[in-house]
Amino acid sequence: MAIRHQVIERRPDAVWAVLEDPELYADWVVGTSASWPLDTRWPQVDAALAYRVDLGPGTLEGRTVVRRVEPPRWLELEVDSGRLGTARIAIEVRPWGGQTLVLVDEHPHTAPLDLLIQLRHRSMLPRLARTVERVAVAAPGSSSSATEGDRTTSGRA
Questions:
Q1: CA 85, CA 9: separation in Å to the nearest integer?
Q2: Could you tell me if 4 and 121 are in contact, meaning their C-beta atoms sit under 8 angstroms apart?
Q3: How far apart (Å, rounded) are the C-alpha atoms in residues 110 and 85?
Q4: Which of 70, 135, 137, 145 is placed for a possible disulfide with 74 were both Cys, Cβ 3.0 to 4.6 Å?
Q5: Closest CA to 61 of 38, 89, 43, 28
Q6: Which residues, in sequence order, are CB contacts of 152 under 8 Å at separation 6+?
Q7: Whole-structure pTM over 0.85, yes or no?
């Protein structure tokens, strides 16, 4: 089991906008090189997206299915990475003043993957923060500046 958290200096709706966009999944999920929706219902329960992982000269395709969603606070996913295994991932989005606290709790269905997931989360949550920052800056009416940089903090929950 891997539990990590990240404070993102944007409001929860900006974080949720990234989480609900299946094409941005590859921008923040470590190891994923591309993602695309398998239907138009993402992130509704049982909606799925596909993704590709580049492994040296080969590639692996996987599938992620929404198991629980309560916008804009909870998103629970079941990830099937084929040979790499499966996992259940719960993402909680909490208001934190004018910022957002994101908690990710990932449970691989195979115990040896836990250490790898811990290492992956150290990169994944900062990537999520950078994606939210980038998308929020690009959004019309954004009150932030593209020169603000990455203002995030992370740690173990």
A1: 33
A2: yes
A3: 7
A4: 70
A5: 38
A6: 6, 7, 8, 9, 126, 129, 130, 133
A7: no
